[in-house]
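Checked the freezer inventory, then went back to the computational side. Two predictions to log before the end of the day. The first one is the construct we discussed on Monday; recording sequence and tokens without edits.
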Amino acid sequence: MQSLNLLKSIADAKSNLRKSEQKVADYVLENPSDVIHMRIVDLASEANVSEPTVVRFCRALNYDGFQDFKLTLAQGLASNANFEQFSLNSKDTVSEFKQKIFDSTVGNMMRVREELDSDTLEAAINAIASTNRLELYGFGASAPVCDDAQHKFHRLKIAASAYSDPHMQMISATTLTETDVVIAISQTGRTKDLLHAVKLVKDAGVTVISLCPSNTPLADLASISIHIDLEEDKDLSTLMSSRVVHLVVIDVLAVGVAMKLGPGLLDHLKTIKRSLKSLRQNDKRLPLRKPAD
């Protein structure tokens, strides 16, 4: 169990714990910084349970005992001390909300990095590398992520198209075959039009890769589900970091596909680089005009 995920793991496991163990879970979730300085007798007293209950709680989370649990909790808090979720208020200065937004985004990226399953990523990379045609579906803030992915996979000689219009997604869905792949991207995993399109392609035997939260309709529909679980301020939709994390995951997939396709791709990428030179202004600076006398 990764230290950065410990508090989330406790919250997720809480419903499966005994009632007395849930008291321990509640206290730890509310007071993690205090728990790392406690003895087992102190935690038992604060949670109003017995010391054996604390031990059972730790073992239910796959730790050898309280000391092992406390060490992991301390490491997690130390690693994540500066990257907690933020909330804004009207009195925040530019310097303050800049710091909050960057710290929250970095923290989210670190958490997702720890949670991403390598086997799932490898399955997605293999599917993309061997596809005949790659289509990307997303709405709202997920649409530019699809556009970015289209650009990246085009560079890798993969026929890719991105659609953020429901009608175009329907048309795309009806033309795909079992040799094709769809990447569906969603911050919620619950967008109705997106789910409808994905159901169509699944019925056609198309491999669907999802980038969305776990335990959502889209994750359940996908052939390969890459879980992006973030706890964000729902009232600050313009500041959510889901889009940034999705972009990084697309980078991971693109690098994986490039490695899968082998060194022969390098010459192709060099050709692209040379062809783009003509679109860029050279480094020569225009001489400054002398001011008129």
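The second is the one RB wanted added to the comparison set:
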Amino acid sequence: MSQYAARVEEMDISGIREVFEAAGEDAINLGLGQPDFPTPEHAREAAVSAIRDGMGDSYTSNKGIPELREAISDRYATDNGQDIPPENIIATAGASEAIHVAIEAHVEPGDEVLCPDPGFLAYEQLVLLAGGEPKRVELRDDLTLDPAAVENAITDNTSLFIVNSPANPTGAVQSKQDMAEFARIADEHEVICLSDEVYEKIVFDGEHHSPAEFASSDRVIQASACSKTYSMTGWRLGWVAASSERIERMLRVHQYVQACASAPSQYAAEAALTGPQEPVREMVSAFEERRDVLLDGLEDIGLDTPVPKGAFYAMPHVPAGWTQKMLDNDVIVVPGEAFGPSGKGQARISYATSTAELKEALEVMRTVTNSL
């Protein structure tokens, strides 16, 4: 008998972690997947008040406190025009758990799950954990996911496909037309569309749309979080929204792997969602300015880069050996192939750092590029 589960043996340690472990202590870190801004003060204070008042000492309901789920429901109604009742929402330990419970509740062993390539590292690993088979779908030249490519990849064994917009690692934002097509594909082919919307508020060009806005059935599941929008990655607070029938199945997974999201984090999230949104606007404006600094610098160096319209990542095309040589010169960037084989020849650069550090890193990029 094997000592370890076969599905776990198929999983890999994150390639990003390997890059970080190889870096020097004083390296400029352009590999981070989290904002470099503080959590809004009113969200912090809400958590402190909850702790002082004894509301953080016990389990909440499995789905989360009503006030938080009402705040999420209101946000969907106000921002997306979606009618999602609070009872159709589960507060989770970040969007990662939301994606995990959605996959566990809908993927049978041997099922195919379509994942963007390059795409967020966790997708394929969570599919493997559920006993499914990840199937990669290459992106367009502008790094968006082509609905036609998704539709062509669907077989009788496909149970689910994943859409991520704005996207990690690319910064790409899907168009309204694409999202409507993803909804149609889910409806017509009777497969699940899992929409990872954790960067939904960090959009510079165009607008965020969800496939759920266009669905005529309940086959779109939405996952999101406070992590990126409110710089709350350490608070581990996200949610999943779906039909009551699908929420019931995901709740069965959630209640045994997590019980409930952290109580203090739930109160902080409620305050973040219902309180002043100026910190979000300031953060997004700063990211857009940094993006433009980075893109101008990359263009000047001669590195072709699809223009990211959201999140805080760019993926320039780079020469062979570039990411390693950057690391040797104390600048951390992540090789594109860490996000899937189609990312080979590119690198993910996070601009969730100061403009001064970005400019310093660009000078290193210039030197490294000229040396190759």
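For RB: The chain is about 40% helix and 15% strand. The mean pLDDT is 96. Let me know if you want it refolded.
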